[in-house]
Design goal:
Elements: H1 34-50, H2 61-71, H3 75-100, H4 105-117, H5 119-130, H6 134-163, E1 167-168, H7 171-198, H8 204-236, H9 238-241, H10 243-247, H11 261-284, H12 286-293, H13 297-309, H14 311-322, H15 326-355, H16 365-382, E2 386-387, H17 389-407, H18 411-415
Antiparallel strand pairs: 1-2
């Protein structure tokens, strides 16, 4: 039998049996020598971060996507590589955000998660807006709202309903969010209706100018409403939104924090830069994809891009619903939709105004009707403050129907005013 040394290891003990540790099981990241401690600490944090989500295996597509875009590869390859590259980056963005929000509670944590969860859509939209891809921007915004409201929320209800007979959440908070979503849908219905009313009476130039004026004014009002909602949520009526935190006190131990605030902040900056680079190449390849794959810009912006951008939020919301934290799930799903509708979309309209791009709130009639009906369905399902798997199936089914409709919806239909 091989002799043992003082710490219990034999001559056959693998050197890799305890990575980042001395043979006496003392972790290297706690070593007193700085030149040993910091590399080991960095390696440990990187390992824990990468294993936080299975989707991180797709990180291999990040350098491939950047190289493909920089070297001018086939547009289809550039699109697909960067499409898959943004998914794990969105996951890392979400992970770093969750690490920052560990001690903030479900209200602030949900708000922070929704904010940085929408960073991918915002970056992609800014790049597209700068290039004059107005249809991509509008479709991406509407697609993000529909994806969060129907697909993400539906999967939350399905996942939670598979474990619990019935789940409960704060109906007052849900009602406030759904009311604001109704206001957001009105802000799209009014420009679309006005455009159709003016169709027979004004020239195309006059119509566009009037819609721009209406959109700029409406965008400012929507941003003010969103700021008031944040003040309502975080200051004057925070006790309503914090009820779920009070109810859950003592139920579960606080989750261990992997990243320090500084590490999480650095991760957010680095990942955001990587997303911006991949988004640049992704948007640049869209025109070629439309020509070669015969997929409409509307379908790309409304279905494909939101799937990429919402991947991390989707996983987060489903995981917390399985833990029966439905208020946090609602905050991520509906809160993210609300942030896109009342915050990001108006911001892009104002940004377009500043840089000279005619970004408006005039969405096509069909898209506006779909948005209104989606808000209506969600409002009916969340008004009682309870959820089950059947309601989740309804939401997911509605999203699939909409996806099929936009798959066969041609870009030319918008030019005819439909």
């Amino acid at each position: 039998m091989p002799p043992e040394n003082s710490n219990g290891a034999t001559e056959h003990t693998s050197l890799l049996a305890h990575p980042l540790q001395h043979m006496d099981e003392h972790p290297l990241y706690k070593d007193e020598r700085a030149y040993v401690r910091w590399p080991a600490y960095t390696a440990r944090i990187a390992y824990l971060t990468l294993k936080s989500n299975y989707v991180n295996v797709l990180l291999v597509f990040v350098p491939l996507g950047i190289v493909a875009g920089a070297m001018g590869w086939n547009p289809t390859a550039v699109f697909l590589l960067n499409f898959f590259a943004i998914m794990p980056l969105a996951s890392l963005l979400s992970f770093a955000t969750e690490e920052l929000s560990v001690k903030l509670g479900q209200t602030l944590g949900g708000l922070l998660n929704a904010t940085f969860g929408n960073a991918v859509e915002l970056i992609v939209s800014i790049v597209a807006l700068r290039d004059g891809q107005i249809r991509i921007v509008q479709s991406s915004m509407l697609g993000s709202i529909l994806s969060n409201m129907l697909l993400v929320l539906g999967c939350c209800f399905l996942a939670g309903g598979s474990r619990y007979r019935e789940q409960h959440f704060n109906s007052l908070v849900a009602s406030t969010m759904s009311s604001l979503m109704a206001v957001a849908s009105a802000s799209l219905i009014i420009p679309a209706t006005l455009y159709n009313v003016m169709a027979a009476n004004k020239s195309t130039t006059d119509k566009e100018d009037n819609i721009l004026i209406l959109s700029h004014g409406t965008a400012i009002i929507m941003l003010i409403l969103y700021v008031l909602y944040l003040f309502f949520q975080l200051k004057t009526h925070s006790y309503i939104f914090d009820e779920e935190d009070q109810d859950s006190d003592g139920e579960e131990p606080e989750e261990a924090q992997i990243l320090s605030p500084w590490a999480a902040g650095i991760a957010l900056v680095v990942v955001t830069v990587m997303v911006a680079v991949c988004a640049e190449y992704l948007v640049d390849s869209i025109d070629a994809i439309v020509q070669t794959a015969h997929i409409s810009k509307t379908f790309i912006g409304l279905i494909l891009l939101p799937i990429v951008g919402n991947a991390a939020e989707h996983v987060t919301a489903v995981v917390v619903s399985l833990k029966n934290k439905m208020d946090l799930a609602i905050g991520v799903a509906i809160g993210s939709s609300l942030q896109i509708a009342l915050g990001v979309t108006p911001f892009l309209v104002i940004l377009g105004w500043i840089i000279g791009q005619p970004m408006t709130l005039h969405f096509e009639t069909f898209e506006t009707v779909v948005f209104f009906l989606s808000v209506l369905v969600v409002n009916y399902l969340i008004q009682d403050g309870k959820s089950n798997y059947l309601e989740g199936a309804m939401l997911v089914g509605t999203y699939i129907i909409i996806a099929l409709a936009f798959y066969v919806y041609p870009d030319e239909a918008g030019k005819r005013g439909y």
